[in-house]
Amino acid sequence: MPETPESLHADVHGDTVIDADQLVRITSLHRGFLYQHLYTAACLLRFKTAGMHKLLVERDEDLEAVLPGRHVYLQVKTRSRPLQWGDISSAVDSFAAVRARHSDGKRPGHPQLVIVANVPLGPQLVTKTATADWPGDITLLTPQTAPPDAWLPPAWSDLDEAIAWCTREAAQVPFSSLAPLTLVWKLAARVVYACTGHGEQAFTADTVADLHEQFVKELQAFPTLAHDYLPQADEPDLLTDARVRLIAGFSGAGKTAWAAHAAQHCPEPLTYFDTAALTADAVAGGLARELTARYLNTEQRTNLPHGSGIDLLRAVHRHLAATPTAVVLDNVHRLSAAELKQITETLPTVRLVLLGQPRPDQTILSAHLGITAEFLHGWNADGVAQVLADAGAPADAATIARLIALTGGLPLYVRNAAQLAQSHYAHDTARMCQALTDRQHTAPTAQDLILEEIFDGLAPQAQTAASLLALAEVPLAEDELSRLAQDAGLGPKDCARGLRTLAGLGVLQRLGDGLTTLHDATRALATDYIPHHADTQHQLNLTLSDILHDSLISGSAESRRLARWARLLARTERTDQLLPFASHDYFFDQSFAVDLKPTLQMVVDDHVARPIDRFDALNALATLALDAGDAAAHKQLTGELTALADTHHEDWGIRETVVLAGHQMHQYAYDRDTKALNAAYLAARAALPKESAARRILRYNQAKSLYQAERYTQADTIALNLVEIYMAHLGLEADDIVGASVEQVAARLSSADTDLDDCKRLADCLALRAGCRRQLDQPFGLAALHALKFYQLAQAWRHFVTIGQDIVDDFVELGDLRQAMKLLDDALLPAARGQGFADLLLAVRAQRAVVLAHAGDFATALTEIDSLLNYHVPSCQAQEINNQKHLIEQLARLERPGPG
Q: CB within 8 A of 58, min separation 6: which ones?
C-alpha cells in the first residue's frame, strides 16, 4: 500500500526540513550542462570558419579551440543573477598555470581565456575588468558583448536563444537531407558522448567534415514516420552495452517507428536494414552491400574478395573490426533461428538490434543468442487520449483504460480504433469499445486481421488455454488455470503444451509470483474460442468466481481480482454473496461499484425476492446516487426504501433502521429542512441501544447531513464529539497518533483486535471536522492528516486520495512545496493508479501540475496539464482543469514578466 510520508506535518511541529527542495537544483544543473553542450555544438558548426585544427572538451577547460598560432580556452557559465567575481576567480587563477606552460614552450601558440556567460556582469565585476591591471588575454563574453573573434558563437541568454542560433547556423551546412534542428541535437548528443572520454575528448579537422556527413547518411535508410511520434511507455534505449538484442512485438506494435525515432537522437552511427523485401539467402549479401556503401572507402571496396552471402559479409566485417558499428535489422521473424545466429556470429564486433514479430521458435532463438526478448509496452493513457482527441473521438479516462485493455496500447491498433470510432460510431469511443468487447463490430480492424492469422494457426489446446485466460481477465497461477481448464475438458499436459505455444508467439505473458496472463491486444479475440455451450460457460464462470473468492479470503489478492469477482457475482446472479458485499462501506470505495447497478436494479424489480434483499439493493443504489451527487435519483430511491420499510417494518432490525434514517436525513439535507432532519435522527435513535455502534453511525450520518445542509457549526460539534468517542472506543490517546507512522498506529491497534471499520469511521469523523472548520474558516489542527492515516489503515483509498488532495492544498498555502510534492508522488498518485480511480487520477495529476508551477517548473506543468485536456471529462472537471492551466500560465507570467 502507498506509504504516507511521516514528515507531512514536520513544519507544523516546528521541525526543520532535512533537505531543501532539489527540483530547482536539478533543473539548473541540467540547463547548465545543456547550455555548455549547445555552445560546443555551435563551435563545431563554426569549425571550418575558424580554421580550427582541433576542438577539445572537458580537458583543462570546458572547451579548447586549437587554432593556427593560438590556443583559445573557453569556460561556459550559466547563472540566474549577474556574474560575480566569485564565479570566475578560480578560472582566472587557474589560467595563470596554463599561461605559464605556453610561455615555457610546453604548449604551442598564444593562449587566450574566454569566459562565456548567459548573464551580464555584476557592477563590481564591471569595475574590476575596467582596471588597467585586468589581463589582456582574458575576455568575458556575455549576451551584451560581441565575441572577441568573429568565428566565436555569441553568448546566449537562455536555452531557447541557444537552440534558435544553432538551428540558424546548422541551416548553412550544405546539405538538405537532415533538418537543421535535428543536426543540432545530433551534434549535442555527440558532444555528450565525447565528454565521457570517447575519442580522447577531441574533434579534429579530419573528422568534423565526416561527422556532418555521417549524420546526413545515418538516417537515410530509416522509414519516414507517418505521424508525429508518440513515445511508448517505458521505452528502452536503442543502443545499450548488449551486443545483440531482440525487440519482439506483434505487427503494429511500433517497433520500426521506435527505432527510426530513437535513431534521430542517437549519438552513434546507425545502419538500418529491412529483411522484408529479401529472401533469407539474400539477407547476408544485401547487408554486406549496405555496410560496404556506408563504411568502406574506395580502396577497401576494391580489395573485397569475390563472393556472396555470408562469405562477403565476413569479408566486409574485417574492415569494420576497429569501427564502432551498429545495425538495426528489421523483420527478423522472416529468418530462421539458425540463419540469425549465423549472421550474429559473422559480425562479432557489430552491435545488432533485431526487430521482429513473436515466433514459435523464439525460445530457441533466445537460447542460441544468449539473450532475452524485450518488448515495447504500447502507449500509455496520455498517448491514447491524444490520438483519440486528434481523431475527434475523445474519451474519458475509464474508456481509455478499456481501449488499452482491448488493444494493448499498440500504436497501429489504437490509431485504427480511433478511426473506427470516428467513422462508424459517430465519434463515440465508449460505444465502439463495447462493440469490440462483445465482438459485434462489423467493420474489420487491423488488429483482427493481424491476430486472427495467429489464432487460426493455433492447435485446439492452445486456443482453449488462451480463451480461459481471456475469460479470467486477471493473471492466474498455474494451479488456478489447471482448475479452470478441467471444466473446459483440457487436461494438465494439454494445458501446459498450449501455454508453451502461446508463450513462443508472444500471446502469453508470465508475470512475477508465478502468474500468467494474455497480452492485452489478444484478449478480445481469444474470447471467440471460449466453449460455446451455455452450461459449460456458466460452470466456467462459477469456477472462476470460486477461484477468485478463495484468493480474496486469503488476503493476498490484488484489487483487480476483487473487481472481477464482483462482476462474476453479477453475471452468475449470485446475489446471496453480492448483496452483503454491496452493503459494506468498502464496496462504495471501489471504482467498479457503478458497473453493478443493473444487477442491483434487477433485484429491486424482482418482487418475488426477499424484502431484505430488495432493501439491500435499494440501499446500494441510493448510496451510489448520493456519492454521484444525483439528488433526483437519491430522492426516488429513498422513497422506495421508505415504502418498502412501511410495508415490511416487522422484518427490519437495527441495521435497516440506521440505513433508512441515514438516507432520509440526507434527503432532508437536500431540502435544507433541518427540523425534519433532526426529527428523523431522534426517531431512529429511540429504536437503538445506548452506547451502541449503530448509534455512533447514526450520529455521524446526522452530522454529515447537517454539513450538507450548511449547518457547519452544529456538524462540527457532533464530529468532534464522535472523534472523542471513537478514540476512546479504539483505546487511543492523541499522543498515540501525533508524530506516529501508520505502521506504529496499526501496531497499537493490532494488540486490541480492532475492527478496521471503526478506523474508517474515525477517519470519516476527522475528515468531516476538517471540512466543517474549513467552511468556518477556522483552524482544524491535525484532523485532516490524522484522517489520512486512518483511511490508509482502513484501506479506504478513494477517501484517502480525496482528503490527501485537501492536505496538498494546505501545504501549498503554507509554502511547503516539497511536502506537497512528496504526498502527491509517494501516496496519492500510487493509490489512485493502483485502485483504478481514473477520475481521481486526472484530478491528482492536475493538482500536481499546479504544484510544479508553484515550484517554478512551468514547462513540465504546462505539458502535464495540456495532456489532461485531451481527456473527455464532465464539464465541471474540464472547467477546473482549464482554471488550473490559467493559474499555471499566470504564475509563469509573474515569474517572467514581459518588457515594460
A: 195, 201
Distances (CA, A) of 570 to 534, 541, 565, 627: 17, 11, 9, 21
Higher-scoring residue by pLDDT: 186, 820 = 820
pLDDT at 461 over 60: yes
Whole-angstrom CA distances from 556 to 513, 750, 753 are 11, 19, 20
Here the cell at position 855 is: 515550484
Contact assessment for residue 350 and residue 327, using Cβ atoms and an 8 Å cutoff: yes
Coil, strand or helix at 165: helix
Query: Would you say residue 174 has pLDDT above 50?
Result: no
Cell of 555: 488476503
Q: What does the pLDDT read at residue 9?
A: 42
Q: Which of 370, 377, 331, 325 is nearest to 354 (CA)?
A: 331
Nearest residue to 640 via CA among 685, 682, 669, 605 = 605
Q: Which three cell numbers stand for residue 203?
A: 574533434
Lowest-confidence region among 138-142, 518-522, 811-815: 518-522
The whole-angstrom separation of Cα 176 and Cα 288 is: 27
Q: Hey, how many other C-beta atoms are within 10 angstroms of the C-beta on 133?
A: 5
User: Residue 749: pLDDT above 90?
Assistant: no
pLDDT average, residue stretch 496-519: 85
The CA distance from 767 to 719, in Å, is 9
Assign 351 to helix, strand or coil. Answer: strand
User: How far, in Å, are 149, 208, 721 from residue 52 at the CA level?
Assistant: 13, 10, 82
Pairing between β-strand 326-330 and β-strand 508-510 as defined by DSSP bridges? unpaired
What is the C-alpha R_g of the chain?
34
Q: Which contiguous run of DSSP H or E holds residue 849?
A: helix 838-854
Can you give the pLDDT at residue 157? 95
> Scanning the structure block, which residue is given the C-alpha cell 464529539?
721
DSSP for 255-278? Answer: HHHHHHHHHTT-SS--EEEE-TTS
- Tell me, what amino acid is at 317? H
* Rounded CA separation 625/618 (Å): 10
Residue among 40, 107, 113, 102 nearest 74 (CA) = 113
C-alpha cell at position 517:
496472463
Each residue's pLDDT tens digit, 70-97: 999 999 999 989 999 999 999 999 999 9
CA distance 633 to 594: 14
What are the tens digits of pLDDT across the range 673-693? 999 999 999 999 999 999 899
Assessment of whether the complete model's pTM goes beyond 0.70: no
Q: How far is CA 884 from the centre of its chain?
A: 21
Q: What share of the chain is helix, strand, coil (3-state, %, to 5)?
A: 60, 5, 30
